[in-house]
């Protein structure tokens, strides 16, 4: 399909309808926790610091949408990282609370310890991502 044909299909589908579909998948949860990429721009490519250990609460975590990663601290001193894309319909997860990673789109929940599904409709775990914790710095590996 050419770019002009693709544009014609999108416009004929109705911009408002497309916007509604896209906004439904964005979650729109005003309580979601996310962080912008660091100023150095290295985190997206790996190797750059994405957070300080003090930024990640015990039993909680933070979603870094720009890096498609959610970093959790399921117990004091243990840090985990997972894909921030829900395995149900590919919506971005929105927050972490009570040791669960929460997707606002359809209510799926995942364990902050291992990424496994704790509440459907998702039926696959979040993919684990590699991080390195050095001192108080957390970096994508």
Automatic annotation (TrEMBL):
* Presence of the UniProt keyword Protease in the record: no
Q: Which GO terms describe its molecular function?
A: 2 iron, 2 sulfur cluster binding; metal ion binding; monooxygenase activity; oxidoreductase activity, acting on paired donors, with incorporation or reduction of molecular oxygen
Cite the CDD domains for this sequence: Rieske (cd03467)
Residue intervals of the Rieske domain: 48-140
Pfam families membership: Rieske
Give the UniProt entry's GO cellular component terms: membrane
Q: Which UniProt keywords apply?
A: 2Fe-2S, Disulfide bond, Iron, Iron-sulfur, Metal-binding
Protein known as: Rieske (2Fe-2S) protein
Q: Which organism is it from?
A: Microbispora triticiradicis
